[in-house]
Amino acid sequence: MLQQLREIPCTPQFRLNAEIQRTVKRYWQSVPGAIAYLKEALRTWKGIKSPEAIFVAACKEGRKPEAQQAKSGAIAWFEWARKNRIVIAMSGETVYTLDGQPVGLQEMMRRYLMRE
To answer: What is the pLDDT of residues 3-29, one digit of tens each?
Structure first.
């Protein structure tokens, strides 16, 4: 994992200081998502002064890239909707209602807000 961090192309260069090493040891389960989050931030944000700070915060807060967060949210919604007999299946961005009708996932998520 530390090698992946070393290889991230960014300016200023990512430094594997003592804080980074402590963070990796302490939050090891969050490191893959945090690396992906940092790479996304480097691609999409402007003027990053401290990639290390972004990485540490991502590890501590369990952040993941936006696309990954959206995907896990859709999966959670589908599991909830299936349990509540709103849908029976999902394929890509399409869900299938109890009568087998295909409907867009986003439309269904708007129609049926997830409740516990």
So the answer is: 788 777 776 677 788 898 999 999 999
